[in-house]
Amino acid sequence: MMKTKVAVLFGGRSVEHEVSIISGLQAYAALDREKYEPVVLYIGKDGGFYTGEGLDAIEFYRGLPASLKNAVRVLPVPSEKGVELVRYPMKKFGNNVVAEFETALPVVHGTNVEDGTLMGFLEMLGVPYASCDVMSSALGMDKYMMKAVLKAAGIPVLEAVEIDAKTFAADSDAVMDRLENEVGYPMIVKPVNLGSSVGISKAGDRRKLRASLDLAFDFSSLILVEKAIEPLREINCAVLGDREEAIASACEEPFGNDEILSFGDKYLSGGKGGKAGKSGGAKTGGAKSAGMSSLKRRCPAEIPDEMTAAVQRMAVDTFKALGCMGVSRIDFLMKADTGELWVNEINTIPGSLAFYLWEETGLSFSKLLDRMIQLSFKRQRTREALTYTYDTNILAGVSLGTPGGKA
Ligand SMILES: Nc1ncnc2c1ncn2[C@@H]1O[C@H](COP(=O)(O)OP(=O)(O)O)[C@@H](O)[C@H]1O
Ligand SMILES: [Mg+2]
User: Is 169's pLDDT higher than 70?
Assistant: First the structure.
């Protein structure tokens, strides 16, 4: 049997670069070698694409940026069978096609990649890929837009007020008056499109509100403010499939040390030491743990069966309403005393692809990837059945006139 060539893409110019390296290497290792021939396609912090021997091991990434000189820089070029990775700069003699692939597995996190940017690039290459498309990825990254779509679909989300930096700078007191009227304390202030709790804080009074707004605007020129849910429990649930058919995973309850789960809680608290690695500093310390799979969590979440069913139903509805594909994780806020639930956010490419939530349901990581890759080809077949071009003689019939003259 011919093996399918799969590019595993990770990295990118995102604050979650290192986390993506972990997720990417985990997926690379889990791909079924009987069926697939995986190739690493690492996106460096410089935006370049790299492949080559050794890029499938974490040691390479611990040695960055110096180790980059041992990688092969490539350019992805559309070809008949998919995409060829062409050495850049090219050698004068010999074959410059370093590798090729027929489908892509994007394992990227955060803005500049997960938000539809990478998907748009793959679309232009014309290659299938096993993740959300441009639209659903972009919707998933913008917390305000996501709420708008989910609201229209009748899915419960917290009302939010969106504020831009210029409006706040022009009259901060008017903005805070409005928030006090429309939202009320306690409030949560967050950048619309970041992850890992960056720039998010809670405000219980006007003085704290100003500080929270200042903080969030440090990270984004668009922020949103919503009611803070108290007492809070959080429940996450992943979904696998596409718009037509999708299934929900087990539910988990993540726990943090602070009121708001921080980047440190999410990525650095796992493993044996429970501390960031000595060498790498805060962000690379996560490489010592198993990424998202090591966050302090209870899985399955200890909630009543009916609530699990409700979360799973809402997760699937959210996935379909946004037009997702592949595997995404939907995070819920629960008011602990009443059991009320709201969709808080979606991670269109969750950390570790949420494989641990699927293992709980009996689906191995390698089978999960199998399904995702099948879905990538399914979407491609559907698209190929559509008409993208049609013969026209427009160019033959047009006259542009003389340059500089009238059109
Ligand atoms: N409305 C809210 N009420 C209470 N806590 C919230 C609310 N929104 C967010 N949080 C807390 O902040 C954390 C991060 O917020 P979230 O919207 O998930 O952003 P991120 O994309 O950074 O993960 C959540 O996991 C939760 O602990
Ligand atoms: Mg979150």
Answer: yes
Is 2.60.370.10 the CATH number for 4-129?
no
Report the separation in Å between the CA atom of 78 and the middle of ligand 1, taken as the mean of its atom positions.
40
Pick the atom of ligand 1 nearest to 143's CA.
17
Q: pLDDT tens digits, residue range 136-159?
A: 999 999 999 999 999 999 999 999
Nearest CA to ligand 1 atom 21: 195
pLDDT of residue 258: 55
196 CB near ligand 1 (under 6 Å): yes
Give yes or no for residue 228 CB within 6 A of ligand 1.
Answer: yes
pTM of the model: 0.90
197 lines ligand 1 (CB under 6 A): yes
Ligand 1 mean position to 352 CA, how many Å?
A: 20
What does the buried/exposed string (b/e) look like for 175-209 if buried means 16 or more CB atoms within 10 Å of the residue's CB? bbeebeeebeebbbbbbbbbbbbbbbbbbeeeebb
**Which ligand has the minimum distance to the alpha carbon of residue 234?**
1
| pLDDT per residue as tens digits for the range 386-397 | 876 677 778 887
Kindly report, residue by residue over 244-265, the tens digit of the pLDDT: 999 999 999 999 755 555 655 6
CB atoms within 10 A of CB 340: 11
Residue 82 pLDDT exceeds 60: yes
Fold entry, domain 140-156+231-255+296-381: D-amino Acid Aminotransferase; Chain A, domain 1 (3.30.470)
Q: How many CB atoms lie within 10 A of CB 80?
A: 6
